């Protein structure tokens, strides 16, 4: 859902977007609506034919920027399967959610490590920038949906130029208050917003909220 | 520092406040300013003589409400030493910061447990309400100091009446947007704001900020 939502938004802003999946044929064969009533991937793809669908590797091939919107447990292997070229900026949204211990999910990486760091360590030639993982997919894609966009978006990454690329992309789609937290280890901070996000989701009864750093 | 700041604020609002310490004599003997230039406890106490100083147990004796502002590693033993009476509302601010692995500190309880839950489990007859641990002590005590108080304060606790007592106390000192996250296990959420708070402190260079849930 995150990948589709971001893909559509970036496509609407004029970017050439290709969605990578493990098995494009199988993905496109999915036409039944999901549990939330959203159209199956095949129907969604037919409706948005400007957005390509390819294998992870074909999608990443020649890309200026790779968005990692995989589920947390597939993130490292998925980035590996994509064979992303050295130096590519990887905008990493994935959260290490562990659904095995009941709801709300806990985290399978936390406190003294983070998934963003794991990806950066595993693929040291990539330029990983962690961002957007502190809000719902619809809010990521269209910040105006919550309080007209008056909230904070965080970036973490080791490469200043890569962060600048990501910040400009975020600003272009409406993120008006982007804070650069520092190197990729600061992803431990934003990842840890997830536990409070999940409780707020339960308490507020809607995912249409996010955090503003008031200062 | 948290305890003194909260004590002073509540005292200024007309509450009878007694600060509990392990060894009041030793605490009052501290007059040298600390590393931040704040007056030693003895001088502070002399300056604010409406605020009592006693042992943990004497301070808790007969209290309508007990504030736990101990450091995380002393929180459970400290509440135990206070011998707090059954049914008392414990407003718990403590954070489980672990300074042993470098700065910023990590957490010694995280993800699938929280310090608030540990205190509630250890003292099941108390009514623990976790709150305020997502902001600097000065902001806790006087919300107007950040953006005129336009930010969110969270409460977590098993007892609805106890949460109501705490919410009213918070509102009386200027917390205008208090969200009840749910039972004490939701303290896992607010405790996990600490890692991002610590990185923001590094990134913004000031502790005078906090979070607003924008919705």
How would you describe this protein?
Two copies of one chain form a homodimer. Chain A is α/β, with parallel strands linked by helices and 215 residues long. Chain A has ten helices and ten strands. The model of chain A has no long low-confidence stretch (mean pLDDT 94). At the A-B interface, strand 6, strand 9, helix 9, helix 10 and strand 10 of A face strand 6, strand 9, helix 9, helix 10 and strand 10 of B. Strand 10 of chain A pairs antiparallel with strand 10 (210-214) of chain B.
Order of helical and strand elements of chain A:
HEHHEHEHEEEHEHEHEHHE
What is the overall pLDDT average of chain A? Answer: 94
Output the number of helix runs of chain A: 10
Q: Which class of secondary structure composition applies to the elements of chain A?
A: alpha/beta
* Cα radius of gyration of chain A in angstroms: 16 Å
Summarize the largest interface: chains and residue counts.
A-B, 42 and 42 residues
The percent range for strand residues of chain A is 15-25%
List low-confidence stretches of chain A. Answer: none
Helix content range of the residues of chain A, please?
25-40%
Number of strands of chain A: 10
Largest sheet of chain A, order of strands side by side? 3-4-7-8-9
User: Gap between N and C termini of chain A, in Å?
Assistant: 32 Å
Principal-axis shape of chain A: globular
* Oligomeric state of shown chains: homodimer
The largest sheet of chain A, given as strand count, sense and whether it forms a barrel, is: 5 strands, mixed
């Amino acid at each position: 859902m995150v990948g589709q939502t971001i893909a559509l938004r970036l496509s609407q802003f004029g970017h050439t977007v290709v969605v990578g999946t493990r098995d494009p044929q199988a993905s496109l064969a999915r036409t039944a609506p999901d549990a939330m009533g959203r159209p199956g991937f095949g129907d969604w793809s037919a409706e948005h034919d400007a957005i390509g669908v390819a294998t992870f590797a074909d999608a990443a091939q020649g890309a200026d920027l790779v968005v990692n919107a995989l589920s947390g447990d597939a993130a490292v292997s998925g980035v590996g399967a994509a064979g992303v070229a050295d130096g590519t900026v990887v905008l990493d949204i994935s959260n290490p959610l562990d659904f095995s211990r009941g709801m709300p999910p806990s985290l399978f990486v936390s406190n003294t490590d983070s998934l963003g760091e794991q990806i950066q360590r595993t693929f040291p030639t990539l330029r990983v920038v962690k961002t957007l993982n502190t809000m719902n997919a619809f809010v990521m894609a269209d910040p105006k949906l919550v309080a007209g966009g008056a909230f904070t978006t965080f970036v973490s990454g080791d490469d200043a130029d890569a962060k600048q690329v990501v910040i400009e992309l975020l600003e272009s789609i409406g993120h008006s208050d982007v804070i650069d937290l520092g190197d990729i280890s600061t992803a431990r901070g934003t990842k840890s917003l997830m536990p409070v996000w999940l409780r707020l989701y339960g308490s507020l009864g809607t995912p249409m909220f996010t955090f503003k750093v008031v200062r």
